[in-house]
Design goal:
Layout: H1 4-21, H2 47-63, E1 67-71, E2 75-81, H3 86-95, H4 101-109, E3 113-120, E4 126-128
Antiparallel strand pairs: 1-2, 2-3, 3-4
């Protein structure tokens, strides 16, 4: 006999992974933060150059769907919450006579939040914690 809870768990897990990683442009994948285009150098940057680098990186995160919580001169905190596509889940729930409601509820309650602190050091390198 099939264990329905395991079947729904596998379907929900597959759909979550498909939804999370099925992004057309890998540069906009929220799980892969923007990469730095600044090459490592031994020259110390001025404060205005470091602020400009931080502002450019904040713009990249905002373009990728992240939200900025706090902004300092050379440091900022960004968060990303995996969103649930409620329209698709409503349609699937109607097509499966309500069986998909369990998967939808599971995904809505277990959304993952990613929070990172990004700092620009004296050399223009980004340090992510």
């Amino acid at each position: 006999m099939v264990k329905w809870s395991m079947a729904f768990e596998k379907i929900g897990d597959w759909f979550y992974r498909w939804r999370t990683y099925n992004v057309a442009d890998p540069g906009n994948n929220p799980l892969n933060p923007p990469t730095s285009k600044v090459e490592k150098s031994l020259t110390v940057l001025t404060d205005s150059q470091r602020k400009q680098l931080a502002e450019n990186r904040i713009a990249q995160y905002l373009k990728g769907g992240w939200t900025v919580e706090r902004v300092g001169d050379f440091q900022f905190v960004v968060t990303y919450v995996n969103r649930v596509n409620h329209v698709v889940h409503a349609i699937l729930s109607l097509l499966t006579a309500g069986f998909w409601l369990l998967v939808w509820l599971f995904l809505a309650l277990t959304r993952k939040t990613t929070r990172m602190t990004v700092r620009v050091n004296e050399y223009g390198e980004f340090i992510v914690n």
